[in-house]
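Could you join me in thinking about how sequence relates to backbone shape in a protein? We need material for that, and I hope you will provide a protein of your own picking. Label the sequence line and the structure token line clearly, so we can match residues to local backbone shapes. Would you write everything just below, so we can both look at the same thing?
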Amino acid sequence: MFAPVKTGRTVLSDGFVVRNLPIDVARKTCADVIIAVNLAKPATTPEQLAGIGKLILRSYDVMSEANERAQLQTLTQRDVRIDVNVGDIGPQDFLRTPETIEIGEKAARAMRDQLARLSLSEAEYAAWRHRVTTKKSVQARIAAVRFEGLTYVNPDYLRTFTRVHAGDAVDITAISRDAARMAALDELEGVDYILSGDPANPTLIWEPKEKSIGPDYLRPSAGLYAAGGGDLRFELDTQYVRRWLNAYGGQWRNQLQIGSTSLITTSFYQPFNIAQRFFAEPGIILERSLEDLYSDYRRVAVYRFNDLIGRFELGDNLTNNAQLRVGYFADRRGTPIDTGTKALPTISATDAGLLATTFYDSRDAATFPSQGTAAEIQYIRSDIGLGASRDWEQLQAAARKALRAGKTIIWLTAAGGSELGSTLPADRAFELGGPQSFPGYAPGQVRARRYWTVQGHLLWHLADTLAIANHVLYSGVEVEAGRVYERVDPVPDTTLYGASAFIGGRTAIGSVALGVGRATGSWALWLTVGRPVGSGSIVDEPLFR
């Protein structure tokens, strides 16, 4: 979990099974009295050993515990042993750190009498503290900084993520922060560093590890959605990206998808500077989707939406968590009927004009996050003066907050959309339904020109299916309320209510969820596997999945 530190010809790593509680090392190094903090776990049950992954992890625990027992047996009456019962908190539960503080404090206070005999007076402690924290007259400073081992990533790009420069005092904490910022980049698997040369004026050598898949990558994914009403949607998707086509990090991005929504996209992402703050991205999209049309919650027809879209966007990577895009689009759309009565209208139109989107994302996971905030705003304007055959506007916004209380997670979501007083065509109306918005409805079962919704999710931790890979399973319930205006079908404006219960989480094949939902006028039993399937409202965007 933590990168080893290289010093000369030595690689220093976490003790783990070799010295998880290094009492002998402390005694040989400097200690007259040992204060040993022993993290005690409850006995393992047979249920906790089900599966090869859990057995392997337990085998490491057995080795570690044997070493700990050998170390604890060396303690004398002069030493102090503090046993901390950590319960079900494991070494991978970083997000539960606040819980451990109270547990550790309680265990230490239980040994108050033994610890008191080692205490100093306030004056003695202050004198000792001053002695060990007073800066020495000579302080090591970094003579130079350089990058080694890079094949395709521009070192000047990585340099924009660092705060430590030549002439700065050696500060391991600051260096570690720089390493963490670089390691989070999609191009790198990790970052090592070495302080080399004169100890008083060392050279900081960064050793980033580029991903083994190289500058180009092929990334397949799949998604499945099935509901009790006979709805079945699937998508097979492959993304191909050529990266670092130039010194600024240009990328050729391609996507091929088949299924309920089939598409081919190609675009070129070109930053304008080394830091990649500003960029342009022109692209072309060829898309075909099957769209169900409902009247009073009953399916009456299936349309094919055929779109040929051209886009040109300018962007600003505002921060590591936020981005802004503005641009121009042109979309040639046809909507022939696939099944249903021929009396229903078909459309052949061109929409063209301005688009803008901005988002913020501080979540700790792409799916089933346990903390953080996601927010997005989208604006589209089709204008005859900009090449369109019809005028309309569309504005959507949504925000979701994830909160954690122990192993319980709460999601609070609000979303809405408006036509801003324009005449929004029926084929551009907002869609509600599916696992992300009113799970009691099928995707697109409610189409309206304005809407708002609020959601509340409560998730309970069931199991860590593979903790080291952050695979986790939850049970949960969701309640939702909203209102739609100017529906496409002949139903008056109304307030909608919905609720669902589900089991789901992150797995080796992506996110998986099985649930049952009830909404005003409809219900659905649904299953999603892999990449979530669905579109039509802003809460179906990847940011909120």
